[in-house]
Amino acid sequence: SLAHRCHHRSTAMLDVPFLPFCAFLGTLGFLCVAMVGTWCQHWRGGFSLDGSSRTFNWHPVLMVTGLVVLYGAAALVYRIPNTWSGPKLPWKVLHGTLALGAFVLTVLGLVAVFSFHNSQGTPNMYSLHSWMGLGTVLLFSCQWAAGFGAFLLPWAPAWLRALYKPIHVFFGSTILMLSVASCASGINEKLFFSLKNGTMEYKLLPAEAVFANTLGLLILIFGVLVVAALARPSWKRPDSNSPDSRQ
Length: 247
Prior knowledge:
- By secondary structure, the chain is an all-alpha fold.
- Helix content is about 75%, strand content about 0%.
- It is built from eight helices and no strands.
């Protein structure tokens, strides 16, 4: 019918911006990773595995790459229009694999900061940043395990999947925003620790502070845009009760 065709056309028009939006988001994510790497390389002395501050430098790079950018990519898999028809299983595997990759990088990021603290005799887990960060990682591990059990393993009953799905979606966005908050607080904490004794103080806004503050804002924008994309109704995968969705 004409009404159906008009509705279909308007929906298609709404969905046209998704791929350019994804390209922009991908560029922004790449910029975040490049900037955190540049910060640690140029101002913080680079990278090593010797337990020094250069070991710590792996921590922000791995956290931004894993817990923000790769996690954001995993969250958006089901918004790609190609995923809306045909078998769902390959997309489930891609979603789960990207999230697992994000989790592995995140764990390596934790290893870096704990090994740095332990080799320097610095206490662990005393700051708000560390509490929030570890809480986010623990929530992420529960989210991944529950998602794997409910959606990838074949024996989860359909009613359980239907019950858990909105919870999984809610915590997906929540974990991303907690990751962004953890990154922002971590950048701030690192600048307060580093910009003193022999360097220009943070309050005088040296180039490093401007650069790292800008990085924090870009991470925030990335997180907000991912959550906005997840919330946009026209980009959501149409819910069907077909046998395909219960595979």
